[in-house]
From TrEMBL:
Name of the protein described by the UniProt record: Trigger factor
Reaction(s) catalysed by this chain's protein: [protein]-peptidylproline (omega=180) = [protein]-peptidylproline (omega=0)
Function: Involved in protein export. Acts as a chaperone by maintaining the newly synthesized protein in an open conformation. Functions as a peptidyl-prolyl cis-trans isomerase.
Domain of life: Bacteria
PROSITE patterns: FKBP_PPIASE
Top class in the EC scheme: isomerase
Species of origin: Zoogloea oryzae
Gene name tied to this protein: tig
């Protein structure tokens, strides 16, 4: 047998190989003899079928298996001799060799890139800083109160934030259009349920009052027949209701899970939850910057095979996510190529982080995994039950281990890069900044 390696590109390799046909014929004969000991055919007892009949019936199958085994063996030997890590699956291509005494084929495959950990000391990593105070607790309680808003009837004109109940009819060129009419329709002024111009038209109207006004639909309105069109609405207000927020009292505390209604205890729990969320969001921002640093400082080429596999995984995850939301995905075309850029980034980070963990010994320690799981569990009613749930299955534990390893990588980069602390506002961190 003869073998020859060709470097096609930085990561792609091609190996030309051959296996003597005599070796394959010998293997075919051995496989058929083994089959003959147990094969069953009508009119013969097991093991008594003439070898000629066994060869005639099962010869093609035995030859296919023998060729597959020979190719796999020779390719494996050559890959081990080259001392490379194959990425994905080799593409086996038979070669034309008429009259040859050997089976010749070509194996084309990609190898993993060599990753050399770069110096990150010149890179800058910003660490957001935010202390949770009573002001942040009050803001959070205001949000929780608004989520529990009730409405009471108001004997006055409608104001921003009120809920109004109306009848309305819309006409285009004097003709009612589909979807432009409703009875006893309720919406909150300023809540975004209706177009802003429609909401504005109801301001200042009291129960029992009506109004006719013109309104132009946005150019990008979802109904093509109305997009950019000017129509006329008749609206009659039937009820005006003012918002009423719950008081921060024992009943409110109980609605948040404080059994005895202790308001002080409620504030302490809200603050503890906020501190965990603030910590999580700050870590996420630092992690995002660290991952960008790793990408910027390690300009490596990644195997196309791994990117294709990752793209397919992301597509399948997207499909499952749609299904979990109740969407039918049977006829929904989700193309793996849509995720190519994201997949390439994930593969690149995976290769860099794998080498970083190995070279800098950033493996997850049992105590780190335990601490991470206990931190997850702290916000639940029965933390011990959540901890047990993680430790009951290796797959769940592996997820926590992966998070710890990521944290170790982040910590290593932060400790070796130029870091600066920068104050960040609560609204900005929570994504509420204007």
């Amino acid at each position: 047998m003869s073998n020859q390696e060709t470097v096609v590109s930085a990561l792609e390799r091609r190996i030309d190989m051959s296996v003597p046909l005599a070796e394959i014929d010998k293997d075919v004969d051995a496989r058929l003899k083994k089959m003959a000991r147990t094969v069953k055919m009508p009119g013969f007892r097991p093991g008594k079928v003439p070898f000629r009949m066994v060869a005639q019936t099962y010869g093609p199958q035995a030859r296919s298996e023998a060729i597959g085994a020979a190719v796999e063996r020779v390719l494996g030997e050559q890959i081990r001799a080259l001392n490379v890590r194959v990425a994905g699956y080799p593409n086996i291509e038979p070669k034309e060799a008429a009259g040859s005494e050997a089976l010749e084929f070509t194996a084309v495959f990609e190898v993993y890139p060599d990753v050399v950990i770069a110096d990150v000391s010149g890179q800058e990593v910003e660490r957001p800083q935010l202390e949770v105070t009573d002001a942040e607790v009050d803001k959070t309680l205001d949000v929780l109160r608004k989520q529990r808003t009730t409405f009471v009837q108001a004997e006055r004109a409608a104001q921003d934030g009120d809920r109004v109940v109306v009848d309305f009819t819309g006409r285009k060129d004097g003709v009612e259009f589909e979807g432009g009419k409703a009875t006893d329709f309720a919406f909150v002024i300023g809540g975004g349920q209706m177009l802003k111009d429609f909401e504005t038209a109801t301001l200042g109207l009291s129960a029992g009052e009506s109004k006719t006004f013109d309104m132009t639909f946005p150019a990008d309105y979802h109904a093509a027949n109305l997009a950019g069109q000017t129509v006329q609405f008749d609206v009659a207000v039937k009820k005006v209701e003012a918002p009423q927020l719950p008081e921060v009292d024992a009943e409110f505390a109980k609605s948040l899970g404080i059994a005895d209604g202790d308001v002080t205890k409620m504030r302490e729990e809200v603050k503890a939850n906020l501190e965990r969320e603030v910590k999580r969001r700050i870590q996420a921002k630092i992690k995002e910057r660290v991952m960008n640093v790793l990408i910027e400082t390690h300009p490596i080429e990644v195997p196309k095979a791994l990117v294709a596999q990752e793209s397919q995984t992301l597509a399948e995850n997207a499909k499952r996510d749609f299904e979990a939301r109740g969407m039918q995905t049977k006829d929904l075309p989700i193309d793996a190529s849509w995720f190519g850029e994201q997949a390439a980034r994930r593969v690149k980070l995976g290769l860099i982080m794998s080498e970083l963990v190995k070279s800098k010994e950033l493996f997850a320690k049992p105590e780190q995994i335990r601490a991470t799981i206990e931190d997850f569990a702290a916000s639940y009613e029965d933390p011990s039950e959540v901890v047990g749930w993680y430790y009951s299955q290796p797959q769940r534990l592996a997820q926590a281990e992966a998070l710890v390893i990521e944290d170790n990588v982040v910590e290593w980069v932060v400790s070796n890069a130029k870091t600066t602390d920068k104050a960040i506002s609560f609204d900005e961190l929570m994504g509420n900044a204007a």
